[in-house]
Design goal:
It comes from Micromonas pusilla. InterPro entries: BMT5-like. One of its GO terms (biological process) is rRNA base methylation. This is 25S rRNA (uridine-N(3))-methyltransferase BMT5-like domain-containing protein. By secondary structure, the chain is of the alpha/beta class. It has one domain: Vaccinia Virus protein VP39 (Rossmann fold, 3-Layer(aba) Sandwich), CATH 3.40.50.150. The chain has eleven helices and nine strands. Strands 3-2-1-4-5-7-6 form a seven-stranded mixed sheet. A hairpin with a 2-residue loop joins strand 8 and strand 9. The longest helix is centred in the first third of the chain and has 22 residues. It starts with a helix and ends with a strand.
Length: about 350
């Protein structure tokens, strides 16, 4: 039987140094390595042990950020944060509360139209007013699956800081102005396409939505910025969405690498309430009472949307991603290997 791993490499080296013939088993192993394309690269590639240690170190780094700032998930008011898919806006309000009432670096977007959100979610209008008073910008009707929608909102918010007075003499709810430098964090809490939980329709719809989000978010991050996606871990209708939707796999397809998984504890975000996502508008039938709004705008939203803290209480995780900045290889398909701090073609 062929020797494996480190022992095989040592024996091969000894045979070469001594000039003695290698066993047939070692020769077969070398031929296999050549066919796989990894022969002689053990000194330049990262071992599985090192990869595990690096992942552990990164997790500890992200988890330790909370201790440095004293706030959950390492948030602080100096971060420029883009919130995506906010429903009742309570997570945005929680951040401004943690930031001592300062929301000037927050850009908050919601998929719902403003009138739909106000009719569906209790106190949504009051929360919106509180956010704008704190200096945050709140933008409704932003669909992450619409090409360039998120990017357009972000760029306009950023550039609005260059305006002298104009329509916004207070300067509130505008970005920093100047050259776009990217966000420290782009956050999408509990994404849900609103098409129910029956696979494969729900899986495909949510993967498509996440793919569009990751594709947009990647181009809106500053260097070393982070994408945060909160996913419930409960049973029943929310059974293991991270695995069912293959969230990390979808992120990888769009150039983002998984860094860490943080516990999402609602109590750490003051005033946060998790609400069920509104059904997709295509599912609103005539029996809902009003075409185009499902009865929401006539006060007929009983049971349309409700608090669903059980989903989060059963367990939730925030998955952390960053842009994958490792080179992918040469134009001829040759593989790149790492040697110290540099990359070279095999």
């Amino acid at each position: 039987m062929a020797k494996k791993g480190r022992v095989a490499r040592i024996l091969t080296t000894l045979h070469r140094v001594a000039g003695t013939p290698m066993s047939e088993a070692l020769k077969r192993r070398q031929r296999s390595a050549v066919q796989r394309g990894d022969a002689g690269t053990h000194s330049g590639t990262v071992s599985q042990w090192r990869k595990r240690k690096d992942r552990q170190r990164r997790r500890e780094q992200f988890e330790g950020a909370a201790k440095e700032t004293g706030l959950p998930h390492g948030y602080h008011s100096g971060m420029r944060i883009l919130l995506v898919g906010e429903g009742n806006l309570s997570f945005a309000l929680a951040l401004t509360t943690l930031f001592d009432g300062d929301g000037s670096n927050l850009l908050v977007t919601s998929f719902d139209r403003q009138r739909i959100a106000r009719a569906a979610y209790p106190y949504c209008e009051d929360v919106e007013e509180s956010l704008t008073a704190a200096g945050a910008a709140v933008v409704f009707d932003v669909d992450v699956e619409e090409p360039d929608a998120l990017r357009g909102v972000a760029k306009r918010w950023w550039a609005a800081g260059d305006d002298d007075g104009g329509d916004n003499p207070t300067g509130r709810g505008v970005g920093p102005g100047g050259h776009f430098k990217g966000f420290d964090r782009v956050v999408f809490n509990f994404p849900d396409a609103g098409v129910g939980v029956t696979p494969p329709l729900s899986v495909k719809a949510n993967q498509d939505m996440l793919g569009a989000f990751f594709d947009s978010a990647k181009g809106l991050l500053k260097r070393n910025g982070e994408v945060h996606v909160a996913i419930p871990e409960g049973s029943g209708s929310t059974h293991d969405r991270a695995s069912a939707w293959n969230v990390t796999g979808v992120a990888a397809r769009y150039g983002l690498v998984y860094r860490a998984s943080l516990d999402f504890e609602p109590g750490a975000f003051p005033g946060y309430e998790h609400y069920r996502t509104l059904p997709h508008e295509s599912l609103w039938g005539e029996e809902d009472g009003h075409a185009g709004d499902g009865g929401l705008l006539n006060g007929e939203n009983e049971g349309r949307v409700e608090a669903n803290d059980d989903d989060v209480a059963e367990g939730a995780k925030t998955l952390v991603f960053q842009v994958d900045d490792a080179p992918k290889g040469g134009k001829d398909g040759s593989e790149l290997i790492r040697k110290g701090k540099t990359w070279s073609l095999k």
